[in-house]
Amino acid sequence: MPTIRYQRRTPEQSVLYLAVRDEWPAVRALARQANAEDGLPAFIEQAAAQFLRCGILQHGFVRAVCDRCKQSIVVAFSCKQRGICNSCDGKRMTEVAVHWLDEVIAPVPIRQWVITFPFEVRYLLAWNAPLRSAVLGAFMRALQAHYKRQAIADCGRDPRYGAISVAQRFDGAVRLNVHWHILAADGAWVKTPEGLTFLPAPPLQQADVEAVFADALRRIARQLVRLVPDRDDEPQDRLSQRQPALAALFRNAMLGNQTTGKDAGKPQHVEFGKIRLDIKPHGRNCAQAHGYSLHANTRVGELARGDLEKLLRYVCRPAIAAHRLEQLDAQTIRISLKNEWSGGVTAVHVSPRDLLIRALAQVPLPRKPSIRYHGNLAPNAADRPLVVPDAAKVKAGCKRTKVKTCRDDETVAQASTRMSWAECQKRAFLWDVLDCPCGGRRTVIAAVQDRAEIERILKHLRLWPDSEDITAIRGPPELLDPPDDEASDAWDAFDDPQPLEWTA
Ligand SMILES: [Zn+2]
Ligand SMILES: [Zn+2]
Predict the structure, then answer these.
(1) Alpha carbon 119 to chain centroid, angstroms
(2) Which of 306, 313, 363, 487 is most open to solvent, judged by the fewest CB atoms within 10 Å of its CB?
(3) Ligand 1 centroid vs 345 CA: distance in angstroms?
């Protein structure tokens, strides 16, 4: 059976992969020194180790064969790690955005609220899960009060709001910066004799934003006083006592200081672009105080589903966008900023080790969800079935691809309502990796995990690393580039079949 190699992404050549591969042993050793041989917590160690295997054919792959021309392709397994792996996070972004669009967010206007925090609070939010829940809860109560107030003024009768909150841990330079993007239905649902009706909120005024902000800050301050001890017998920074290596990692990643070289301990080096004169009115629907800020100027109308999908992908995007990283020399990586910083800063320079430290700080605490549903969108809300998109319509329009594998003769996707890998790719790239160029359809026929078998097949395909002729059998380069739109920004490359787990 002839086998072709399709245009596989090559993670082993990416700037991030090389930084992790080269610096991880040293950072790991330093962490062990700092922490009585315990080093960094297991979830961070695991994330780094798994990331180094993600998308690498030598660690296993699946073969898919075309039903018409019988040509087959090989696709490496993915690591499914959060925070550090931009490829797996990219796939997750696509999956979540489609799920929200099809099954959670009905055609109602959506407003994005973004709340950010001062450094001291960011650091606590990075590791203190009870505090994080309490702070988010405080903000959501302020937001709920805002929407209820408006709806009651409009019509009375027990209005309900609905929102999705997404915790992000990064800023444009991949520094540790825990903050939330909240996608709120811009209005409220009220019960009327005709049933549940959505009342759109009146146009947002600056005074409204300031009122929500002031209310939220009062509530958040109460939670900080309640949950952050201010006593000698219980230090505020419990993390630095229990996990000194992790505490140091978080602090370095948060402050963005340089950790290596002659400038160690100094702030990161920045690049300035041209000062542009497109002066915009500053602070529209924004409020700032005491290092906190609230932005609420992004709103998507109920009919702009395409814009909504872009917004959903934006809030779920990976921490690290591969195409924003550029290796300038052995010790310098430039991170181009998506949004220019004040003062005209367009890029920052980091060492490979600093990039690794920032990437490691992005790995979220295990079993702590970064996405939560509130009000009428909460999983247990009585009215949820009435406010999500019409399930029957969604089902009719939904063509989930079943990925057949040979493992245990099971159709793995049958057990899962998640998108198939091929479907994610199709959504992200507008073409389907299981569609063969000949017009036929590819089926996954085997998952190859045995070391000897892996080596035998890759040598046969001349894809074993010793092979001299790897580039000759790559696909045409234009297929490597996803369409250049907002979504592609956060989606680095191809991903791998979702339902299959590789076993080491
Ligand atoms: Zn074919
Ligand atoms: Zn991965």
Answers:
(1) 21
(2) 306
(3) 49
